[in-house]
Each structure stands twice: as C-alpha cells, then as structure tokens.
UniProtKB/TrEMBL annotation:
Domain of life of the native organism: Bacteria
UniProt protein name: Chaperone modulator CbpM
Length: 105
C-alpha cells in the first residue's frame, strides 16, 4: 500500500499454541507495556516461559490479552474479574464446540 511517497507494508502472522513470541512482541501486538503484561502473568491470565533470560509466550496469549483488556475497559473489572470472565467465556466456547460436534453425529 502506498501513501504519497511513503510505503506502508502490512504483514499478517498466524499465531497459535505452537507459535512463540517475545515479551516485546506481545507488548507491541496488544499495545501494553511490559509491566502490564507481567501483571497478567502474575495473575495467571497468561503463562510465560524463560528461555536464555528471555520471556516467551504462546501465540494464543495475544488473543487472551486483548480480550482481557477489552473486558477491563468495557466492564471496568480488575485483573481477577477479567481472568474469571475469560475463563467462563472460554468454557462457553468449548461447550458450544462440543454441542456442534454432537449435533453432526
């Protein structure tokens, strides 16, 4: 995409459980600072692995963090409340997927 004399490139990356991203990449993808992301790790909302002094996250953390941020902004809940809501929403999604599978039999 070109705008005037400036070229803007867009890239899409598919992130899943097998994907690994750094703290910096997660912060950039979710528009948060490192302290905010680490608070989510401390709350148990997302998990990080330490590899050679670098925090690595699963690609699914991007969706989880973005969802938590929306819950906090839209509903005014704290991290603990967002974590509970996220857990319940994910359980609903799993149950709906199970129902769909059972209905196809």
């Amino acid at each position: 995409m070109t705008q005037g004399n400036h070229s803007t490139e867009m890239a899409a990356i598919i992130l899943d459980e097998g994907s690994q991203i750094t703290l910096r990449e997660l912060c950039s993808a979710c528009a948060l600072n490192a302290e905010q992301v680490i608070a989510l790790v401390d709350e148990g909302i997302i998990e990080a692995r330490q590899v050679s002094g670098t925090m690595l996250f699963s690609g699914v953390c991007v969706g989880r963090v973005r969802r938590v941020v929306r819950l906090e902004q839209d509903l005014g809940v704290n991290h603990a409340g967002a974590a509970l809501a996220l857990e319940l929403l994910e359980e609903i999604e799993q149950l709906r997927a199970r129902i769909r599978r059972l209905e196809r039999r």
